Amino acid sequence: MTFALAPHVTVTTTPHGLVLLDGRSGRYWMVNGTGALVLRHLLDGGTPETAASDLTARFPNAAGAVKSDVDALVSALRDAGVTAR
Question: 22 lies in a domain?
């Protein structure tokens, strides 16, 4: 499955991660540095599984939580309506 943001969502890079802005509602979401790594990975064509694998390689001490954290981020983005369906 290809991951994409909805056309009405813009992304801005910040020193601490990303900000997503829903141009229709004016709502925004701040994504921390780790979440930004995951989101960029997904937008570049990766999957949640490969994003989790990449994070586990970068942060081996967090290996136990990585998969569920990636899944939680993807679910939160979908629930917020910022992803293309």
Answer: yes
Relative orientation angle of helices 33-43 and 63-80, to the nearest 10 degrees: 70
| Per-residue pLDDT in tens (0 to 9) along the chain, 85 residues | 679 999 999 999 999 999 999 999 999 999 999 999 999 999 999 999 999 999 999 999 988 899 999 999 999 999 999 999 6
Identity at 36, one-letter amino acid code: A
How many structural domains comprise the chain? Answer: 1
Q: Decide if 3 is inside a domain.
A: no
Hey, what long-range contacts does 57-60 have (CB within 8 A, 24 or more apart)? 59/34
Q: Residue 68 belongs to what domain range?
A: 9-80
Amino acid sitting at position 19: V
Please indicate, yes or no, if residue 75 is contained in any of the structural domains.
yes
DSSP 3: -
H-helix or E-strand spanning residue 61:
none
Q: Is 0.85 surpassed by the pTM of this model?
A: yes
